[in-house]
Amino acid sequence: MEVNGIKKISAKERLAIERQKMPEQDPADRVKNFSEVNLGFTEHLAMLEAKRCLQCKEAKCIPGCPVMVNIPRFISLISEGRFAEAAESMLADNALPAITGRVCPQETQCEVRCIRGFKGAPVAIGYLERFIADWYYKNADKTKIQKAPPSGFSVAVIGSGPAGLTAAGELAMMGHDVTIFEALHYPGGVLVYGIPEFRLPKKIVEEEINRLKLLGVKIECNVVIGRTYTLSELREMFDAVFIGIGAGLPLFLNIPGENLKGVYSANEYLTRVNLMRAYEFPKSPTPVLKAKRVAVIGGGNVAMDAARTAKRMGAEESIIIYRRTRAEMPARAEEIHHAEEEGIKFEFLAAPLEILGDENNWVRGIRCQRMQLGEPDASGRRSPVPIPGSEFIFECDEVIVAIGTRANPLLTSTCPELKVNKKGYIEVDENGATNLPGVYAGGDIIRGAATVILAMGDGKKSARAIDKYLRELKLKKTE
Question: What is the end-to-end Cα distance of the chain in Å, rounded?
Fold first, then answer.
């Protein structure tokens, strides 16, 4: 059957279509370069995958998305080849679709709720999101993005990571004058310093940021709030402030030997390679240690990124040491799968006790202890329990610690009136409002290290709350 020249298919025909596989670089080739692993859908594959969507009347996938993208709508438009309209639909809901389409854990959020997944594979929502975002950047002149007229209000956004960029984009669309203050010399936050080129090309982040600039968002780099300006000064300069500074202070194991040469935090290691482009050394002036046998401690996405990066930097062996089993790893399933394909090895049920050095204080190994799993902890994962008498030496010449991060106190220590919890994270209400009027916060600085999309959800929610606050402020001024 055809409607307006477009062939409509039945639910039975949709169910007969299998999930389309994402084209990707061969593992043997990609471990030798920093080019993107996933290559993206063609128009044919995208339309075919989009036709698998059942267009549920009550779409369970939407509430699974922290930024509440109208998933059935943009997928339906893709299935009909109406890419410009699909892009407009996506951009109305999501400020950074080319990024979330690459790094968002769709398998535990929107896709896990997809009806198709109950009897087979869910619709590849993330792949389709990436497809339409990439299509947009090649065809931006074919789309129309609506922006509200100027409101007369100004908003300062502290931090240009996913929370800050999302808040800035949403506020700009609402007509507010937005300025982002970024501490580093390049905008993007964790998107540029933390996530490797082979997962999220910096060109993609740059394109997303450039689109926000076209909306009128201004970005000032090399501005450290707490040093260049205080939060109190920003409150005087702007009508509202959003804090999205992340949680970039790395955690360490607090075991002997962490001060040896050859020990990196994952933050430093990935920043050197990603933002400072150490993988292009000596073309880039930033060096990074290249070791033969690298041990990465941790089991999250950052640990996967570090291990896969080390392999690309020339390590003969790159091994992840994790105190639980594969089943408990918090990293995305796709990242673990890609790591395995690339020859990354795993040392499960092992906990470091001491990092060992040679006579020149260079790393030579890690003294570890075998673990077994006990009862579940607060996260729902089974707790690792030491096995007495099970110590062993793991030989390596570089250690990367990837066990998480915490809040950097630089901003909050210079604004004692801003309420924080005992861990140093900013306290906010359900709308992202802090205890200070007109000051909002979101992302890792309110909850600790989490996902890009959760930070974006905070940015979007806070932007709406800020808009409401400013509109009410305008009404009070006119009364």
Answer: 59
Residue by residue, DSSP assigns 306-358 as: HHHHHHHTT-SEEEEEESS-GGG--S-HHHHHHHHHTT-EEEESEEEEEEEE-
Cα distances from 185 to residues 1, 279, 401, in angstroms, run: 56, 19, 25
CA-closest candidate to residue 329, choices 287, 362, 373, 285: 373
The residues that bridge with 250 in the sheet, in sequence order, are 405
d(CA 174, CA 336): 40
Structure tokens at 297: 């401690």
Is 418 strand, coil or helix? coil
pLDDT truncated to tens, each residue of the chain (479 aa)? Answer: 443 344 678 878 888 899 999 999 999 999 999 999 999 999 999 999 999 999 998 999 999 999 999 999 999 999 999 999 999 999 999 999 999 999 999 999 999 999 999 888 999 999 999 999 999 999 988 777 788 999 999 999 999 999 999 999 999 999 999 999 999 999 999 999 999 999 999 999 999 999 999 999 999 999 999 999 999 999 999 999 999 999 989 999 999 999 999 999 999 999 999 999 888 888 889 889 989 999 999 999 999 999 999 999 999 999 999 999 999 999 999 999 999 999 999 999 999 999 999 999 999 999 999 999 999 888 788 899 999 999 999 999 999 999 999 999 989 999 999 999 999 999 999 999 999 999 999 999 999 988 999 999 999 999 999 999 999 887 766 65
Question: What is 72-133 written as a DSSP string?
Answer: HHHHHHHHTT-HHHHHHHHHHH-S-HHHHHHHS-GGGTTGGG-GGGGGSPPP-HHHHHHHHH
Q: Check if the beta carbon of residue 317 is closer than 8 Å to that of residue 345.
A: yes
User: Residue 16 contacts by C-beta under 8 Å, 6 or more apart in sequence?
Assistant: none
Please name each of the domains of the chain with its CATH number. Answer: 2-142 (1.10.1060.10), 154-248+406-478 (3.50.50.60), 252-403 (3.50.50.60)
